[in-house]
Amino acid sequence: MQLWELAKRWYDDRLQFDWYRRTVAERQTLLNEAGLTGESWNLSVPQ
Questions:
Q1: How far apart are CA 31 and CA 9, in angstroms?
Q2: How far apart are CA 22 and CA 41, in angstroms?
Q3: What does the pLDDT look like over 1-47, one tens digit per residue?
Q4: Deepest of 12, 16, 21, 29, by most Cβ within 10 A of its Cβ?
């Protein structure tokens, strides 16, 4: 269910005329809000 919640938020605006690529901080917030935390979900740490 976590991935479904993330997908809904991640792609909700893709068809909008004023779509822009989210910043790393914005994408990290989406992951955190979906409950996807931990080292493997941290976008600021090189994998």
A1: 10
A2: 16
A3: 788 989 999 999 999 999 999 999 999 999 999 999 999 999 986 65
A4: 29
